[in-house]
Every structure is written in structure tokens, then in C-alpha cells.
């Protein structure tokens, strides 16, 4: 019996060398555990939608299209495509980070016309949590049991959203990724996308998001003259991080699962594995053990990219030195591909609830530069090495004295030479993040409204669409 077909569409930036671990893991699980062949289509904003429509028509043939959407980066064009295809009869699934929040919409949107009303009318359903939940869904698409899928959100016959509890993470489904099942949209249809940097999942979530805390966040600078210009918030992790709200912290995977993922990576011409990002906010304590195991038992690797916090970097100096000595023996490069500095102002870091301060950021930079002298062939950290360190700018708290302080730090420590990214990222407030609660509290207290930009909320003066008294 011929296999059925499914495709997962994901947001993509043209020229990106990284894989898309979440969608590719989901495609692998579906491929191995259902009657569906599943591919991932990495879709750039500039891709021709007419070519896309023809490509999907050819891909599915006479069968009903089954299209998943994951890691969409808030792209309105992809939401609109999903709505169009759903109306045409396709079965569409919203998945990935914040799938449940985006499907349901912003808090209390029914009573506030300016708020994001959600995507429940755009997709056939949404799926939150582990990708293996899709196995039950796909095995029961033709009967009523599909609505019993763990982690499923859907509209019932009365137009009300129903939500099923999700399953816990199961490591057996996180050990294998087929890196060949990802494609780009070419002029003639699907074209294989070669992955140059893989991703290895070692930790689910972030330890900083492991507990709830109460903080105070200042009003935006342009509203700071209001009485009592602070908002008390309950926060898990960084105040701006919607992933912290979505995932929290679920701990580390077993070493066996991590090694299985590494063995499945594509190889370079010298038979070593392609460089990979180790997805772990606190990778350094376990890095020497991972390298020693790879040194003793293989497979041979070429480069590990680390994404980590500045405090975790400074606090594990000895472990990193131990790892670099092993890397020297193994002829392996270690790249600090992204350290989450986010700001060089204590005032801004406090609002972001980073859990770090300026001194910690500067100590991390001093350590990075010192390690380059000690391990010049093993340690890489700079912008020219391919690193893209976290820098959030502009922010709502950029009053003149804050900006002057940041510029002073940049000049004094020469951050433009190796640390600052080519382009900073403005503060993005997702409607399900803690800072969204901050904005909604200001709106209610001050009787103002801020513009919504699909899943994000504006915070700058031009985004204020209704002022007090209007």
C-alpha cells in the first residue's frame, strides 16, 4: 500500500546554515512511526507563493493536503497561507513553541478588541508538547479518535476551544533525526537543503525558568513621569522570554540519548561529524565528560557550538579549561556561538530579569579573550568567528543616561572589536511572555492601548494607539 504524504512548513532565513531541529525531529518521528512520508519545507519570506502552491499541489496529488506548521517566528504571511489552505480543505496543524498560546490568543482578548484573537480559525488544530503526540493524531485522522490526541487543541461543534493534556517528554523519541528530509523551494519545486551546522538536544528548557519569582518592572521611559511607574510581575526566567513560559525546565537528557543524536549527524569529507550546536543553557559542567566519551568511543567530531548564559560561563571556568584541553587532544574546535549578554546596563538587565549583571558580562568577556590566548586553535568566540552574541536594543528603558552608560562600556572595553553583533535585536514582546502582562497592566492602569503586531505587542511611543482621555 503506498504511503501517504505530509509536509511541515517552517520559517527560514535565506542563507542560514543551521538545521531546524524541532521540525526535523517531528518529521523523523512521523516518518518512522506512521504511514506518512514527511518532509520539512524551510520557507523564506521572499519565496514565490505561486510556485509554492504548485509545488504542494504536485506533492500531494489528489490526496487531501496534510500540512504542519512549526517555528513560524510570528510570520503573518505563513498564518495567512495556513488560513487559505484550511479554507480550501487541507488539514493544517499549528505546532512548535507557543502553539497553544497562539492558537488560543492573547489573554482576555474577547473583552479587548485590540488584542490578538488567536489562530483557531486559521488552523484545523494545534499541538503543544512532544512531537510524538502526532503519532496518535495521524493514525486517527479518519475517525473521531483524532480529537483524543494528547496535547491537542481544536474547536468543537460549538466553536469552543478544547484542550487535551500533553504527554511528558520521552527520550526514546529524541535520539534520532533524519537530516536529509529538509528542503527549500526552488523554481521547479522542492530542492534538498544541505545542513552545515546540526543541533543536538542535551537539555530541555532553561534552569533560570525553573521557579516563579516576583519582580518589579519600570514603565517605558516615555511614560516614566506617571505616578508609581512600576509594575509588579510574576516571572519564570527572563521577562522577555516566551520559551521560558512555554517550556519551563525539564532537565537534561541521558548521555546515551545525546550520543545517539551525534552519531546520526551528517559527516564531513574527513569522516568527522559536521559542527553542531549543543542545545543546553548550562553546557559546561558536563562538557568534559561528553568530550571524553567521544574521545574514547567516537564518533569523531569537528566543532561544538555553545549557547549559554554569561553567569554559567564564568561559574564553570575550570570545566571549560578541562574541556578545551580535551579538545586540543581531539583536534576539535569549541565556539561560544551565542552568549546571552542582552545588555551592558544594569538597569536594563534588571528589567529583563536576566539574573546577571554588568560585572558578570564583563567578566565573561575577559575570560573569553583570555581563553583565546591560552587555546588559540581550540577556542573561538568573536563575531568574526561566526558568533552572534545576544544584544537586545532598543528597549523601553533606553533613557539618555542609560544609553550614555552603555556607550561608555562599549568604548572602555572595546566591545565593538569582537563582541557586539553586526545588528542588535529590538525587544520583542510576545503576547504570552511575562512582559506582555507588564504591557497589559500599564494599559489598564493608564487607560491607554498599544498596537498589536500579530503575535507581538508594541511598546514604543508610536505604537500607542489610544492615549488617556481619548
Characteristics:
single chain, 470 residues, alpha/beta, Rossmann fold, 2 domains, 9-stranded mixed β-sheet, 5-stranded parallel β-sheet, 23 strands, globular
Question: How would you characterize this protein structure?
Answer:
There is one protein chain. The chain folds into two domains: 4-192, Rossmann fold (3-Layer(aba) Sandwich); 199-430, no CATH class. The strands form six sheets. Strands 7-6-5-4-3-1-2-8-9 form a nine-stranded mixed β-sheet, sandwiched between helices. Strands 10-15-16-17-18 form a five-stranded parallel β-sheet. A three-stranded antiparallel β-sheet has the order 19-22-21, covered by helices on one side. Strand 3, helix 3 and strand 4 (91-95) form a beta-alpha-beta unit. It is globular and about 65 Å long. The model has no long low-confidence stretch (mean pLDDT 95). The chain is of the alpha/beta class. The protein has helices at residues 21-33, 49-60, 76-87, 99-104, 134-139, 242-247, 255-263, 287-297, 310-314, 317-330, 346-352, 358-374, 400-412, 415-418, 434-446; strands at residues 4-11, 36-43, 66-70, 91-95, 125-127, 152-155, 161-163, 182-186, 189-192, 198-201, 203-205, 212-218, 230-236, 249-252, 276-279, 303-308, 333-339, 379-380, 429-430, 449-450, 452-453, 456-457, 464-466. The N and C termini lie far apart (65 Å). Helix 8 (287-297) runs parallel beside helix 10.
Amino acid at each position: 500500500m503506498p504511503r501517504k504524504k505530509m509536509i511541515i512548513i517552517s520559517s527560514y532565513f535565506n542563507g542560514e546554515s543551521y538545521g531546524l531541529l524541532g521540525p526535523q525531529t517531528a518529521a523523523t518521528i512521523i516518518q518512522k512511526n506512521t504511514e506518512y512520508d514527511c518532509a520539512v519545507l524551510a520557507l523564506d519570506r521572499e519565496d514565490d507563493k505561486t510556485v509554492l502552491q504548485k509545488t504542494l499541489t504536485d506533492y500531494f496529488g489528489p490526496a487531501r493536503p496534510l500540512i504542519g506548521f512549526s517555528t513560524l517566528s510570528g510570520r503573518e504571511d505563513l498564518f495567512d497561507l495556513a488560513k487559505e489552505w484550511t479554507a480550501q480543505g487541507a488539514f493544517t496543524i499549528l505546532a512548535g513553541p507557543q502553539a497553544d498560546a497562539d492558537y488560543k490568543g492573547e489573554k482576555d482578548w474577547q473583552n479587548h478588541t485590540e488584542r490578538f484573537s488567536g489562530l483557531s480559525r486559521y488552523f484545523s488544530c494545534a499541538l503543544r508538547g512532544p512531537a510524538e503526540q502526532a503519532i496518535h493524531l495521524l493514525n486517527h485522522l479518519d475517525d473521531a479518535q483524532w480529537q483524543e490526541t494528547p496535547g491537542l487543541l481544536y474547536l468543537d461543534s460549538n466553536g469552543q476551544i478544547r484542550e487535551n493534556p500533553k504527554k511528558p517528554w520521552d527520550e526514546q523519541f529524541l535520539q534520532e533525526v533524519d537530516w536529509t528530509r529538509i528542503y527549500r523551494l526552488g523554481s521547479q519545486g522542492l530542492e534538498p537543503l544541505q545542513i552545515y551546522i546540526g543541533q543536538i538536544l542535551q537539555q530541555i528548557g532553561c534552569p533560570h525558568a525553573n521557579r516563579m519569582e516576583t519582580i518589579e518592572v519600570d514603565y517605558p521611559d516615555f511614560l516614566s513621569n506617571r505616578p508609581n511607574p512600576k509594575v509588579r510581575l510574576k516571572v519564570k526566567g527572563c521577562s522577555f522570554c516566551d520559551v521560558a513560559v512555554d517550556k519551563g525546565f525539564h532537565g537534561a537528557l541521558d548521555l546515551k540519548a545525546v550520543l545517539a543524536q551525534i552519531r546520526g549527524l551528517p559527516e564531513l569529507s574527513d569522516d568527522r561529524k559536521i559542527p553542531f550546536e549543543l542545545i543546553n543553557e548550562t553546557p559546561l559542567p558536563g562538557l568534559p565528560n561528553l568530550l571524553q566519551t567521544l574521545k574514547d568511543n567516537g564518533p569523531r567530531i569537528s566543532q561544538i557550538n555553545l549557547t549559554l548564559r554569561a553567569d554559567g560561563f564564568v561559574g564553570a571556568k575550570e570545566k571549560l579549561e578541562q574541556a578545551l584541553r580535551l579538545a586540543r587532544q581531539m583536534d576539535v574546535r569549541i565556539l561560544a556561538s551565542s552568549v546571552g549578554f542582552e545588555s551592558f546596563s544594569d538597569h536594563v538587565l534588571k528589567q529583563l530579569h536576566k539574573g546577571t549583571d554588568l560585572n558578570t558580562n564583563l567578566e565573561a568577556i575577559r575570560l573569553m579573550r583570555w581563553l583565546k590566548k591560552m587555546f588559540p586553535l581550540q577556542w573561538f568566540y568573536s563575531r568574526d568567528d561566526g558568533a552572534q552574541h545576544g544584544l537586545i536594543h532598543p528597549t523601553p528603558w533606553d533613557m539618555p543616561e542609560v544609553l550614555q552608560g552603555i556607550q561608555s562600556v562599549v568604548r572602555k572595553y572595546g566591545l565593538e572589536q569582537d563582541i557586539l553583533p553586526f545588528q542588535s535585536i529590538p525587544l520583542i514582546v510576545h503576547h504570552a511572555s511575562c512582559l506582555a502582562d507588564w504591557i497589559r497592566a500599564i494599559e489598564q492602569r493608564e487607560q491607554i492601548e498599544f498596537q498589536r503586531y500579530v503575535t507581538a505587542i508594541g511598546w514604543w511611543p508610536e505604537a500607542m494607539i489610544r492615549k488617556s482621555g481619548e
